[in-house]
Each structure stands twice: as C-alpha cells, then as structure tokens.
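#struct-queue
[09:14] JT: dropping the first one here, sequence first, then the structure tokens:
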Amino acid sequence: MQITSSLGPFVSVLWMTVFCPAGCKANPVSCRLWAEPQMTVLSMDGDFVIGGIFSIHYYVRSEQTTFTTMPALPQCAGSMDFRELRFARAMEFTVQEINNRTDLLPGVILGYKIHDSCVAVPMAIKVALQFANGMDLFFKETNSCSKYAAPTVLAVVGDSATTPSISFARIFGLFGIPQVSHYATCACLSDKSQFPTFFRTVPSDEHQATALARMVKYFGWTWIGAVRSDTDYGNYGMTAFLKAAQEEGICVEYSEAYYRTQPRSKLERVANIIRRSTARVIVAFLASGDMKFLLEELVQQPPPPLQWIGSETWITDPDFLRFNMCAGAVGFGVPRSVIPGFREFLLDLCPAQVLKSPLLTEFWESSFSCSLKGRTGGRECDGNEDIRALQNPYTDTSQLRITNMVYKATYAIAHALHSVICNVTQCDKTIKFTPWELLDQLRTVNFSTSNGFQVNFDSKGNPAAVYELINWQFKKDGALKMVTVGHYDSSKLRGQEFRMSSAVSWVGGQTEVPVSVCSESCPPGTRKAVQKGRPVCCYDCIPCAEGEISNNTDSLDCIHCPPEFWPNTKQDSCFPKPVEFLSWDDTLAIILTVFSITGAFMTVCVTAVFYKHRMSPIVRANNSELSFLLLFSLTLCFLCSLTFIGQPSEWSCMLRHTAFGITFVLCISCVLGKTIVVLMAFRATLPGSNVMKWFGPPQQRLSVLAFSLIQVIICVLWLIISPPFPYKNMNYYKEKIILECGLGSAVGFCAVLGYIGLLAILCFILAFLARKLPDNFNEAKFITFSMLIFCAVWITFIPAYVSSPGKFTVAVEIFAILASSFGLIICIFAPKCFVIVFKPDQNTKKHLMGKVPSKAL
C-alpha cells in the first residue's frame, strides 16, 4: 500500500503520543520523550543542518529485553570500518569547503549531524525519526502535544548500505525530506512510488548487474558460481544479474546467500559449496562485511584457484587487498577521483582534537593500539603517534571513488538549498520553506564539482551509470593493488558500452583468460545436445547427420547442404558434389573405345576382304549385297558405342539412343534377310517352286528398308513426344552426382529395345529352322549361334543395366553393344574370311555345290 506524504503530521503526532507521559493531557505545557535520543558521532551547528548517516560499525549490541524496564539505548558494536569513517569525514570536509565559498550559499553557515547506522534497521529507523522530529527531550506547546514538529535536518546524506537506506527512505518519504545516498545501489530504490524523496550519486545496481553479465559474456565464461549477501542489496542485485546472465546465455552452477549474523554453519556450507564447485568463475554480490567473513572462512581451507568477479561494494575496498586468494579479481567501480585538500583534512588530527569525539578517539586507539589520556585500559598513547605513517583505508586517498560520491551528494543538497533561499545577489537565512520545496529543487540540480564531475539526476533520482573495470594486480613488492583496465558507459549503444584499455592479470598471474565452461565448445561439424536434467550450458557435442553441416562453433542445429552439394569430411562446409560420367580420359572408357575402334577396324577389314573377293563363289553365294550392308551396319554399331562416352548433353543423349536403335535394327534386318534368303533358296530347289521370284534382291532391299523404317518411326515419335535428356541423378549416390541421360519416355526406350528383340527372336527362330540344311551352302547355323549370343547378351543386359551404379550403367550398355556386335561379326563373317584367306581351295563353286566332301568349320 502506498503511503502519501500527507501522513507526515500523523506520524509526527504518533511519535509524540507514544513518547508522551500519561499526564500529557492533564499538563499540555510540554511532552517528554521517554527514550533517550541517539547521539551524533560528528556534528556542527549552522544556519541550516544537513543530516548524515554512515555504516561505520558492523553491529548493534543486542541485549535481552525484559519488558519490565525501558530498553537500553542501542549501541554500535564490532570493529570499525575505517573506510566508512573516511566517508563520514568527507561530508565534514565538504560542508567546510561549502562554508568557505562565496559563490555558493554566501553568508550561510551549513551544519551537519552525522550518525552511525551500524548497518542495522532498528538504528536506522530511530535515527530517521529523530531527524524528522528532533532530539529535544521536551516538546513545549501551549495547548497541545499534537502540533507538527519541523524536521531538524533539511536533507540527509546516506546511508552506505541498502537495507538501512530503504528504512530511511520509507520514513523520509512521509515527511518529504530529501535523501541522497552515496552508496546504496539497490535497483529497488529507483521506484519513485515507494521512495519519492530518494536520490543517489552512485549508479543503480540495475546497470551494474547488466555490466557484470556482459563482462562475463565478453570473456567467454558460461559456467559460473554466484554468492550474495542475504540482504536487499544482495538479493535485488543478484536477481538483476541472474536475469541479465540468462539473456546472455550464461549458466549458474549455484547461487548461495549469506549474511554475517547467520549461524556459522551457514557460512561453512556456502564455503564448502564454493570449494566443491566445477565453475572456476564466481560472481560475488556481497556487502563488505559479508565478503570479509566469507574470505576469512575460505582462507582456512583454500578452494581451487577461482576467478573472482566483484560487485562495486567490495572490489574497490582496499581492506580486501590483503586476501591474496582474490588476486586477479575484476569488477566494476565508480570512477576514481581527486579531491583537493581532502588528504590534508583527514591527516589534520592530534590527540587533543581526537578526544573531542568518541568516534575519532576509537579510531585513534584502534589504529595505534594505545589508550588516550584519561582513558583506562591498554598502553597509554605517548604523543609520538604519527597519523601520516598509517596505512589503512582511512588514510588511503589513492582512489577516492565512493568518497567522491559523498562529496557530490553534499554539494547537490547545497545547490538545491541555494536555489531555494538565494537570489542573484544574496541569501535569506530567515526564509521559511518546506522539505518539498527543497526536494523540487534537488530534482533539477545540474552542476559540475570543483574536481570536474557532473552532478544531475534522472526521473528516478539516479545518475548516469559510468564504471571503471577494476583488476587486482600484484605490485613489484608482492602486494595487491587496484588497476583500472577498462570502462563501461551505459549511455553508449549496445555493444559499445564496454571497452578495454589495458591488459588484465587473471587468477594465478595468468595473461590468458581463464576458462570456465560446463562443456567445451562444440567445434564446427557438430551440434549441441543438452544433457538431461542439467542447465543448457551443459551439453554433448553430436556429429552432424549425413548430408548436414554446422559451420559455427556451438551450433544448436545442423543444416542440410543444398541438393548439389555435400559436406566435407569435417562436416563444416558444403562443397559441390563431384559429377560422375564416363569421360574420355577414364580408364574404362579408354578400354571400351579401343574395343569399339578395334571392332570397327575388323569390320572394315572384313569388308575389304569381301570386296577384294567379291567375285569369289563364297561371297556371291552368301548374298554379297546384304553382307556388305550388314558389314556397314556393324561398323555403325561399333562406332555408335562411342556416343555413350563423354559428358551427356541434349544432342548426345538423343543421338546415342536413336543411333543405337536404328543401327542395330539395320543390322538385324540384314541378318534376317540373309536367313530368309537361305530358307527361300532351299525351298526354291523343290520341284515346281517359284518362291525366289517373291524374294529376290528388290524384295530383300525393301524388307531391310521396311524393318529399319519402323524403328526410325519409333525413334522419331520418341524424340518428338519425350526425348532423352541430360539428367543429374542425385538419388543413387548421396555424396556425388551421376550425370546420365534420362530416358524421357520409358515407353519409347522399351519400344526401341523391344523391336530389336522382336527382330532378333524372329531371326533366331528362322535360323534355327534352317540349321539342318546342306552344310556347304548353309550359314543358318552361324546366324543361329550369333543370334543366340545376341539374345543372351541383351537378356543379361537388362538386370546388369538396372543394378549397375553410376558410370558403370553406361559401360554395361556399351559392353552389350560391343559384345553383340562382335558376336555377329565373328559368328557370321569369321568362317567365310577363314575360307577366303586360309582355305582358298574351298572357295570354289564345285565345293559349294557339294561335289567334294565338306568339312565342318
């Protein structure tokens, strides 16, 4: 539920009512506070007073409440944080510097009241109510106790810690009192509906968490551990970081919380988780006090070397440089600065001055391990203590990061006050104004400090987020130091916010970025497969499936190569599939070409022999005209096999099939004609037979022409309807392309082969019927044998053609053409050539007419 500022008087009345005695109504002259006010640790009167609250101690001393007596005044306990003391004194210094200026609040004396919150909410609430209502024991009014009391401070600087700052902001929001924190970074405080009067000079953790996540991603870490303070600062900060880390694809092995007041067993458990983890990078979003306890626990049994990533709270705290196990730590801090005169102010202390302040007295005695005069216990300080010789966070002004935030916060309040009470020439110290008026002016301040830093606030009360990347490096003497190695500016475009300026020294003094991954990167050629039940950063690398590649590291999926491409052996790129066809330089093609030319040469030689002996009886008796036509067709058959070699093209595909079909039909037609002639010749020897007049030379030529013409018509129709075409066969082999001739029309191809087969079978049947005719004049037996070879070759061709892969398909077809052609020329013409060349005595008409005994060839 939102509480508006109009409830301020009510809260004031409630505060006065609680602490008014029972007789308040009876005696309206005054109201008395029952509880004692909390005393300031540093203060100075002035015309206007600024409040300050810092986490100088770590605890509030706890005492058992009896509920029978008034609770004791809360007291801070534990060791002193010298760095926070420096912050408090920075506010002192800034107020004094403002009072000495003539251009800012001239003639006005600023005062301050500084308290120690002890990082405790009860103390913060008590101080906040005290700031709002005053610390007088008696509230005097003439008529009633209920009149609204004006705040005793016009604005407040602080607190350092987030949780006390939230408590402050909720109370100050009711009264409209501006609060400017120098170190409370929780993003939750940017919510103006809950914290309308809260401002800060330190950037919000929303930016720091994003910067840390992007830095982790920048250095390639995907597997990290996380530990945080179990406070608003740690919980809100880690939530923002984990959200940003998830967006960057970073996985967290563990995320543990710890607060210094929790049982030691919790601290030991967190330390053991860190020791056992596999992540080599740990992000620590811890307050300084919690980080100190954790490191002291880890030192007792050091874990494996860890790369620490620190939040701004502790990464810039010089007190932690004594922990060598954090060497190489990196984290973001606000830019360092120089404040002229501040170091002299810090060191301008002597025992006499110190005794005036219990806080400074504690600092002095703690720093020099002695007791000042008038105090008991321990060695007495002898006056020779030299504060300039001290080396602790109080005297360390080499960085001045958060100290500068205090400086800026104090100046912001002074500028806002100047705008309220001053005009061009002078300031009116008597002017009355409400906290809301000062709040309005604070929203619009925009100035530069004397050391060169711009101060303004956005609509959420935040400054621009600018960080330095801090790296803990060893000096030559072996001590750790903070070195700025990079910068981050949230106002830059995405991808340009982060830049490195010098080399980083990593854990163990390494110069190489340490590796912290759950699983090694998957190389190109593989894909990531998430391990069941584990974060997405834990995965297995699975090789890409056949035909797929991945060309990037850590690919989530493999991609298919285009149809004409195939992966290389590493499966990280696609290259064009090799195209396979029976090329002229192929060994198999050369062998087939030799056989083809040899066959053609043999045919030419036979033709030459026949032509030379064309008048011889054996040539004339075997129908020389058909023989020469058959030899011509066989020559074409041998040569047409050459059209199957080489890269297929549109013309070569159409030529090879049609040439093959027509030449073979021409060849078989001639053989068929010769077979018919043999049958008719013997039938003509029968008494009264005149059959040869129906199958003379004209009829023979016409039959050959007719048989061939039918095949020509079939081929023409095939070429017109659906001709053969070059085809890239990518189905037989996945890794290469078979360049072959597609049939176009399978019916056309089957018709061509079927017609050849029909003629061959017909020829075989007729030759078979004529095989027992007289031997000397009969070549039917040779035709029968040649047709038997022809049919056997083409019958076995079909399954061989279908099952042969790639270029071997073409080779099988060429082999079938050559085998059948050789079968024809050898079976039909070899016996005749043998007789002509080697047995000229049998090449006589007398021998052919059976006048002498014949010998079977």
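[09:21] JT: and here's the second one, same format:
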Amino acid sequence: MADFIATLKNQVLLGDGAMGTMLVKQGLPPGENPELWMLSHPLEVQQVHLAYLNAGSQVIQTNTFGGTALKLGEYGAAHLVEEVNKTAAKLVREVVQDKAFVAGIIGPTGHFPAPLGDISWTELAEVFGRQARALEAGGVDFILLETFTDLGEIRAALFAAKKYTKLPVACSLTYTKGRTLTGASPQTAAIVLEAMGADCIGANCSTGPAELLEIMKEYRQFTRLPLLVEPNAGMPVLINGETVFKETPQELARFAEPFRSLGVNLIGACCGSTPAHIKAMGEALSSREPTPLPPQEGPFSTRLASRSRALAIGAKELPVLIGERINPSARKAVAEALRRQNWDFITNEGALQLDSGALLLDLNTGLAGGDETRLLPEGVRQLQMSLDCPLVLDCTNPAALEKGLQEFQGKALINSVNGERKSLDSILPLAKKYGAAVLGLTLNESGIPAKAEERLDIAKQIVDAAEYYGLPREDIMIDCLVLTAATSPELASETVRAITLVKKHLGVNTVLGLSNVSHGLPQRSWLNAAFLSLALGAGLDAAIANPLDNRIRETMISGALLTGRDFGARNYLEQAGKLVSPAKPSINKDTDQEDPVQALQKAIFHGHQEAVVPLVKKLLEKGDVLSVINEGIIPALEIMGQHFARGEAYLPQLILAGDTAKKAFAYLKENFSAQKVEQQGTVVIGTVKGDIHDIGKNIVSALLENHGYRVVDLGKSVSAQAFLEAARREKADVVALSALMTTTMVEMPQVIELLKQELPDVKVIVGGAVVTAEYAREIGADSYGADAVEAVKVVRGFSLAPKA
C-alpha cells in the first residue's frame, strides 16, 4: 500500500461519511453500542464500508469511535478493547484490500484531563495508547483522532498514538462558533498539534459545511500541514418522529471545491451523511490536484499558545513582555506561598502581571527544600485553569519539567537549556516530545563568555543541537545573558552586540532576562529600562522583566515604535490613550480600596478559593445571607457568564469561578438554615435512554449547583419512567434532558410527553450537541439551553419558588 501522508500531500483524497447514520439503516437498535454490535453483525458493518468504497471513498474509517476502555467500560466491556479494534480494522481491510486507505478511528473518552476533569493526562494517554496499539495490530494505515472538543484530551491521544505506534496521526476537532468546547481556536490547535507531531489536522462534525469553511481558512493561516474536513449534513430536525439531516448531497457537494481551493487534502463528511453525499462531493471536485501552498517568507515567528490563546514572538511582531514575578529565588513572598501551597497568591501574581501588560508568565517553582516534581505540575494546573496565557516553564530539572509539560495543554516555552552537553541531551528531547519551544542560554561549562562572538558560538551549538533533535529553528530562542553592571558595566554592551550577531548569523528570535543588569545597585528600574532600550535597538524580541514597573512597560511600548515594529504607531497610540484616560476598574482589575462585595465578586470571578470564606464572613457582619448570595455570589457568576458568552473566558475559567462560588455556598449552608440558603429550587437532570455521553450534562449540573440550585443528577441512559419518578420524589421544579447522539435525541419527546401528563407544573429544558432550539419547540420542551451558561440563565428565568 502506498504511504498515506505522501499520497495526501500529492492528491486530494475523498473520505467516507457517517457510520452511525448508516448502521441504523442496517438495523442498529437505538441506544445499542455500535462497536459491540459490530462483533455480532460484521457483515452489516462491511456493507457500510463497501457502500462508501463504491461511492468513491479513498479513505475508509474503522467502526471504533467509542473503542477506548473508558467508553467500552460504560457497557461492561473494557476487556474487549483489543478484540473490538482489531476486528474493526480487519473488517475494513477485507472490504477495501488495496483500493483505499484504512483510518483507525479514535474518539474522545468523555473525560477531560484534570483538573478540568476527573482523570490525569497520563492516565488518558495510557487509555488512548491501548486502543492505538490494537488498531495498528489490526492493520490500519493511520490513526484519525476525531470529534475532540478539548485540546488537552487530544494532546494525550496524539502523544499516545505517536509513542505506542509507528503510524501517521491525523487530528480533528469539533467547533461551535469558531471554538471547541473548552475554548481552543483553530489557530491554537494548529500551533499545539503541529508542534506535538501531528501529520494532518482538521475539523469534523460541528454544525455544517459553512462554519467549517471558516475553520479551514483559519487553520491554513497557521499551518502548512495537510488539512482534513468532515462536515455534518447540516443540523438534525425531527420529522414524523424521525431524526432527519436536511442537507442534501447536492447542497453538501457545493462546498467540496471551496474546501479544495483552501488547501484541504482530505474531504469527507460526518453526521447525517451517506454514500450519496460522498459521491456528489467527489463529482463536484474540479481536480484532485492539491492547491499549492504559498511560499514561506522569513524571518519566522516563534508561536506559543495556551489552550485558548496564541502568541507570536519575532521580528515581525511587537516585542513581548514575559512576567518574571513568580520566582521563589527572587521573591520571599512567592517562596512562602509555594511552601504553604497558597495557589491563590500565585495565580493572583500571574493576574497582576497580565493586567499590567505581560503576555506570557514565567513559572519557577524551584523552592529550596521543595519538591519541584510536584510543585511545577501543580503550578501549571492552577495557572492554566485561572488565566489564559502561554507559560514559560522556568525549570532545568528534567523530571519536573516533563511533568509540567504534560500538564500544560498548550505550547510552552522551556526556560532553559544551555551549551553544556548534559543540558542539551536532557532538555531538548523533552521539547520535541511535548511540542515546546526552547530558550537557550549562551553559557557552558566555562561559564558566560566575555565576548559577543563567543556567545554566538554557544548559541550556534544550541541551535544545531535543537535541530538535530527535530526542533524547527523558529522554536529556538536565544538569551545572550547580561551580567550585573555593578561589577562589569562594560559587558552590558557585549550582550547588546551578541543579540545583533545572533539575529544576523542564526536568524533565531531572542529573549533576555533583564533584571540581572541592575543587581546590587540602587534605582534598579532606571538601569533596567535603559538597558532594555539598548537591547530593543539590537533586535530583542522578548524580555523577562517586571510588568508592574511602569518604566519597563513604557520602554517596551516606545521601543517598539522607534525600532519600526509598531506599524502605524497603532500600539503606541492605543497604550498612550490608556495612560491618559484609564478605563474604570472592572471586576478583573485590582483596586486599592474596594468594598467587601466587590472583593467577593472578584475572588469568585478569578477563582481565588482561599479568599472566599473570609470575605463571606466579613459581609455577614453587616448583611444577611440572601444579600451575600444576591449581591456578591450571583453577580460574579453572571459576569463570568457574560465573558463566556462573548468568547472572553472559556470553560476552565467558567468551571473555576463556579467551584469558587460553590465553596461560598457550602459555608453558608453549613452555618445557616437551609431555608435561608436554598432559595433557587430543585433540578433533576440526566442524559436520555441509550445515551452514555455526559460531559455537557455534567457541566450544566456543576453550574446549576454553583448558582445555588439543588441538583439531582440521574446520570446517563435514563428512562422516561426514571425521570418521572425522580421528579416526583424530589419535588423537582425543572427536569433537564441531554442528548448527544441523533439516535437518542428521539427519546426526548417521550420523556416530555410523560412529564406533561403526570407533572404538568414541572418545567422541561433540553440540550446537547445535536439538539437545536427548533427541535426543542417541536417536541414541546419549555426551553432550550444552547450551552451550560445559557441553560443556567434559562432555569433562572423560570422564577422558581422553593417547594414545601
């Protein structure tokens, strides 16, 4: 068989379409597990593969979307991982022989990596590794990670597939309004997944081809990897009791050529599609020649990313400020916070730096006597839940660094590696393994050379070694190092000259730890700012410094303009405008004097859990329980919900704020009567019969609890009778129904009909990936929740009264 990736780069390939839609036509009962049903109905599954092959598909997917131990375990079949995946691969191969490529499908587990979810990243990697090995043993040509909604989870799957198999790996996420469920954009996904070794990236499912056309445009801006796309045949509607996708083969085919012209190399379809859709898409392609990629023009930027925000560093960009203040060796308060594991202090330090102009945060947990292998990963978890920025992992301990890189669900910058062979051989492989960029220090066993030319030589050794380990040159940054002017003022000019030489001869981006120049001298801010201007003039791209120092910020802003990096002076004018007329403080700004209500709102918004109970106690000295809830807790959650709706905050920040509010509610419930605290009402929630997907439902449950509701979670695959019995027993005000699959959403009207007959006063809200507002109206639901925040808003709008 030809090499899949080589073929993909030279030919636009036609994929297949929906498996579930076709299996239902083959007799798959509603709610039945498709992977387990396959074991007793192999011919029916092969008939689907054959239909797509005859329609022109050149890539056929295995029926293994739910083939992990976690998914099969929902049916008591975790022990069948190997049998299911090997069987599925062999069934496809028997049909296609050498007429098409076989894609080994791996879908999400339904679990986010901790702390957003309930399983560690390394445990997820092992789960995915087991399935990937089985698929390889079954004879697939490549692994396709499909329909992922979280960058952290797909990182674990990609890592596992690369570690445990020798197969190419394609990665596909699903998007709503241009973001995944946990906030990743196509830009951040492209940056992170390409750095981790993905061979092809793209998107599937989502809402339909029009939205995915925009997603493909964004992908192509930020990667030169082959792209794949698999749109739904529109969104499902209910017609005569059946779920119908209204996008016809001809309508879907209209997008095939636009996808090809954007540079998409693998074009297929997802939910609701059939062989007729695939045939029409193939016929609509004017050519199978890939669209040529535009030529690359240097100098290249170093691209970093958090889960939901990307950042470029380089000569074409504004110089970047990296916040230096989370460092125990330089600040006793940070050392004490790490010793006590006061993570609220650490995250607040990060927030202050970001508010003051830093775009990245340097995280150093090298506490004397502390366990860096424990502190660094925990610091990463805490910062990325609270704040939305790329991180610089300031660590030279390989064991600790590896744990930190596993936890960071973006693309980090490692600070640092140096010219010593031991450093190069221990740190650079980790950067390649986990898709990080590296910061190289121009020192070696002999220390820091005096002359700029000698520092250039070490920089070249670092660059050569990094490229040997597979890192692209744009992922290498060099720090030419500065010594204190107190002892060697003349060497400062050598550092500036070294920056110029590195930029000229190596073409890599540069960074500088700034504050050392003023060590041991008074008025350090003067020297730091003056030296920064000299370094910016030499071509410095990023500075590790104190963002709270106004001189530093002003020098960065002015230096960018004077060195020709602030085109049209846009940034200078914008920042100068802010300085002249500062905006009023909002909830995410610190103020010198704020009343306890504002303080409580801010603590909840930022997820400062240690601060919440003391603030609640302080408010109770002057007010009652209800005023604390209605003035302090709920408004903070509403503001976070507004940020979430506008795309200014994402699921991790939403969950953290909610958990913080929950801590406040817990204190109130423990210390005051339930009648005073439990004012919101009771909600019974669950996924409908046959549906074992519960991520969305769990998020809604958590947010409702965080808003003060009593939530009775019935779990997954809940029958209509069980919903009724629970609603009656718990005296429910609202019943919330969730469905992710088109085969199970048809259970919703049965539940609603039963509830309306028996408990007409109970409100019913529905939601889930395949559910629409139109569908909710058709089946008689009282309302529809487009996402977790909207669901809470809808429930609050019911104006519930507590039951006796």
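[09:30] RK: nice, looked through the second one.
[09:31] RK: The longest strand covers residues 142-148.
[09:31] JT: good to know. The chain is about 45% helix and 15% strand.
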